[in-house]
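User: Can you help me understand a structure? I only have the sequence.
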Amino acid sequence: MSDNQNLLAEQRRALILDEVRRRGGVRVNELTRRLKVSDMTVRRDLDALARQGVVEKVHGGAVPVAEATTHEPGFEAKSALELSAKEDIARAAARMAVRGSAIALAGGTTAFALAHQLVDIPDLTVVTNSVRVADVFHSSQRSMTASGPAARPGAATVVLTGGVRTPSDTLVGPVADAAIRSLHFDVLFLGVHGISVEAGLSTPNLAEAETNRHFVRSARRVVVLADHTKWGTVGLSSFAALEDVDALVTDAGLPVTVRAEIAERLPELVVAHPAEEPAPVRRPAD
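Assistant: Let's start by predicting it. Here is the structure, written out as tokens:
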């Protein structure tokens, strides 16, 4: 953990959360020494993390919250976590989108971050089951001119699937599934609740799992967007195996040993670093 007393609150809390998850708990006095901040600052950080539902405060410190496999956080709760990592992943993944292609963006906060990076790529056709993602594109589709608002040249064509809304503002169920089954995508950008060797890609929402299965089947190329905290997490329902994934885009927080394990199983692993070009790691030929 860093000794930098000038860390932003978001960065400091990310470090604290990583330490809690890695060690199974931390004490306030340990954090004050390692982070070189006051006892009050650490307690405020723990209060903020507890409000987000990711740690539980105990006497003298905090422990991780043991989530059930059926627990599904809301969009606002998830959007407050790993902000920097999600932005890094979004910038790296945006380089995989080709002008004029048909892409699918499944729901989630990382896909939401990616949507902001894709709005300037011309002539995309975007299919999404995320209300939040659709709003990003719709807000960008018109530009102001001297005579008032006008359609922006090259703005994406956006298709929102319809369906039943989940806590993460994702549309799922038979209506969404039918819409996705009838379409074909050049590339699917897919955020996940959890990813592991044994369970593959998983989610706590059964209906979302079924909708994601249809997304995966309809895509020529599947790109998973997952920050380092998603590795080893398992939700109630698996919807794809690692063998179904063409590329994983993650952040620099993923341990090197895990990167090697993933690189052996996937054709492409992209580790996104802040302010530098991500380097794809390709599986060597047999």
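Now, to help you interpret it: The mean pLDDT is 83. The first strand starts at residue 26 and ends at 27. Let me know which part you'd like to focus on.
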